[in-house]
Amino acid sequence: MRRLIRPPVLTLAALGLLVAPGLAEAHAGHHHQAPEWTFAPGVVIPLALTLVLYMVGWIRLAHRSSLRMPRHRAGLFLSGWATMAAALVSPLHEAGEHSFTLHMIEHELIMLPAALLLVASRPGPVLLWGLPAPLRQGLSPLLRLPLWRWLAAPLVATGLQAAALVGWHMPALFNRALTSEGWHVAQHASFAGTALLFWWAMLPRRGAESSLVASICLFVTSMVGSGLGALMALSASPWYPAYAAMGAMPFGLSPEMDQQLAGVIMWVPGGLFHLGAALILLARSLMGTPARRQPQKLSTTA
Predict the structure, then answer these.
(1) pTM
(2) Measured distance CA(82)–CA(74) in Å, rounded
(3) Structural domain range at position 218
């Protein structure tokens, strides 16, 4: 039996290609009077395809006698997939078109627990093994390009996510995204892509030193998100005219209160999420705990 070698960054690339189309379609800007479940093909098909590919890949790999598939990874993947699906398909998505607070909650679910769980499950090889062999083998060389390693460097990934968060929440770009479908697609594709890239770079693989670097990057990210959220929460006037023009928000909030609550959500829960992860990795670094080695490496060749 041929030894299985896991191509680098398969998790990031596979998830980005499969999830990003659903995220883009999910924020196409449709408005309804009452929140409903979203079953647009551009949302449901990528989510369903991701799940089917994972199941097929898992079955194929599990049948290889030389490979022991960690079941906890499947649990992480399914939890992340379910969180992503809930954010994109449940009434929360459509309600976010009428409330910046609910929109913020949706973004936080996608960029924090969903992205972290998906990346932590290391599903890239499993997803690729769900593809037909010719396509799988054709993609493998592209995913080994040095560009991916450079983008997944902790400092680079941290800078890209910070730029996406700050840039897209500036009034000029955010208002443009609210009024233009193309800009809206670009906004949410960059949110999803940088979140997957960020968590891929943060999860330690090389022991205490990598954990220390990741903890510093997570702390910086918590400060960036918290600072941006604090500015929103403390602002006395709405930043985004599209939301302000709606007048009364859900739950009887004014546009100003809706924005302030959204800012608090980004400031406190969002900041604490990154800070908590930073403290966990910092403790790992100080204790000198070695990174857990992968029991098997996967390849895209049959």
Answers:
(1) 0.81
(2) 12
(3) 10-287
